[in-house]
Amino acid sequence: MTSAPSADFGTLPLSPATLANLQQLGYVSMTPIQAACLPPALLGQDLIAQAQTGSGKTAAFALALLANLNARRFAVQTLVLCPTRELADQVTTEIRRLARADDNIKVVTLCGGVPLRGQLATLEHGAHIVVGTPGRLMDHLERGSLQLDALNTLVLDEADRMLDMGFFDDIVKVAKQCPKERQTLLFSATYPEGIAQLAKQFMRDPLTVAVQAQHSSAQIEQRWYEVNDKERLHVVSQLLLHLRPASTIAFCNTKAQCRDLVAVLQAQGFSALALFGELEQRERDQVLVRFANRSCSVLVATDVAARGLDIASLAAVINVDVTPDPEVHIHRIGRTGRAGESGLALNLASLDEMGHVGKIEQLQGRESDWHPVSELTPASTKPLQPPMVTLHIQGGRKEKIRPGDVLGALTADLGYQREQVGKINVNDWSTYVAVDRAIAQQVASRLATTKIKGKSVKVRVLED
Ligand code: AMP
C-alpha cells in the first residue's frame, strides 16, 4: 500500500447506531485489513482480500454485508461460506455482535455434523444471514430448504482452506445459485491457483487487497534452539519449565508427532491437549473450550487443525518441527504477540531442517537468533499448572440453560465468588464452566446436589 488509509471508523458511511455499537465493543480504530477493505466494500465493490484470523477480517466483511441488509425483508440476503464449523460459529458470533445495533437481524449457522432436522425448523422461521460450510449448504439448496433469490452479498471466508478441503465444486455450485447482481467478498490467507479460478468464474472486477503478513520484529521475539530428534520432545518440556508461559500452542508437522508430544507432556504432569484433524467434532470443541478458558496450558496442534482458530493472544508459540513452508512459519508465530502485546516464538531445529530455517530467514529478511539448550533450566520446582479446571455439565441450550443460570447456581446458590468462576460455554447439549483449580472437585460435587433451571444436573471434572 502506498498511503495508509484513515483508521477512524467515523470516516466510513456507517449509521450512527453502528458507530456507537463499535465504540461499545471497544473497536476504537480500524485494523489495517478493515481500513483497506471497508471503503471499497461499502461502495459495493467485489474484493479479494488477503487476511488471516486475528486481523479483524470478520468485521471487514460483516460491516459491509450488514450495510447491504434490509432487516424488514424476511429473506436470506447474505451467505457466508466457511471451511469449518468452528469458523462458522466464530463468524456468526462476530456478526451478531456487530448487528446488535440493528433490530432483529437473524443469523443462522448451517454446518455438517449437526442433525438436519433442527436446521430445517430454524430455516422455516426465516433468516437474514446464513453462515455455513459448503457441503451442508449444498444439501439445503438441493432440498429447497434454502432459497437465495433475495441474496445480495456472498462471502467466501478462508477460501484457500475451503479449496484445500476439496470444496471447489461445491463453492461453484452454491455461487451459481446466487443472483448475478450481487457483491462477492473473498477472504483468503494465501493465493493458491484455485482462487484465481474462483474469481474468474463468478466475481465482477474484483479489487485485490493485501496487507503485510509480516509481524513487526519488535512485537515477537524469536529464539532458535538446535536439537537432535531424540531430545526434541524433551526440550519442549524444558522450554515450558524454563519460561513458564501461561498458554502455549506447540506446532508439529504431523499428527504422530502431536500424539507423541502430548503423551510426553502429560506423563510429566503438564496439562496438554492435542488438536489434529481426526478428532470428532465434540472432542475438538472440548479441547478448544478447555484451552480458551485457561484450564489447559499447552495445545499441541498440526497447522491444518489450528487454522481458523480465534484464540486471544498467547504467551508463546513453540515450533516443535520447522515447517517447510516459510509462510506457514509466519502464520504460526503470528498467534503470539497480537494486539500490541509482546510475544515469544520458540523454535526447535535439527541439522536436517537447516534448509527450511534458511528459507524462513530469507522471507523474514533477518538471521535467526540461536540459543543453547543448556540455558533451559527450570525456573521453579513447582509444576506448570493452568489456573482453572473445566467442569462439564450435561445439558445445554436445548434445555434452555444460559450462562447466567450457571453463574447464579455457583454464586447465589452455592456462595462462590464471581472471581472463582471463569468462562462459561453453553453448547446445544452440554455446558462447560471453568472454575478456580483449588476448588474444582468441591464445586463439582456441590453442583451435582443443586439444581440449574430447576433441574438436577450431572457434572464431571474434565481432566487429561
Ligand atoms: P478476526 O480476525 O475477524 O477473527 O478478529 C480477531 C479479533 O479482533 C476478534 O475478537 C474481533 O472481535 C476483534 N476485532 C476486530 N476488529 C477490531 C477492531 N477494529 N478493534 C478492536 N478489536 C477488533
List the helices and strands and how they pair.
Layout: H1 16-24, H2 32-42, E1 47-50, H3 57-67, E2 78-81, H4 85-98, E3 107-110, H5 116-124, E4 129-132, H6 134-143, E5 153-156, H7 159-164, H8 168-176, E6 183-188, H9 193-202, E7 207-210, E8 220-226, H10 232-243, E9 248-252, H11 255-267, E10 272-275, H12 281-292, E11 298-302, H13 303-306, E12 316-319, H14 326-333, E13 343-349, H15 354-364, E14 370-371, E15 388-394, H16 403-413, E16 421-426, E17 430-436, H17 440-447, E18 451-452, E19 455-456, E20 459-462
Bound molecules: adenosine monophosphate.
The count of domains is 3
CATH superfamily of the largest domain, please?
A: P-loop containing nucleotide triphosphate hydrolases
Ions, cofactors, ligands: which are bound? Answer: adenosine monophosphate
Q: Determine the fraction of residues in helical runs and give it as a percent range.
A: 25-40%
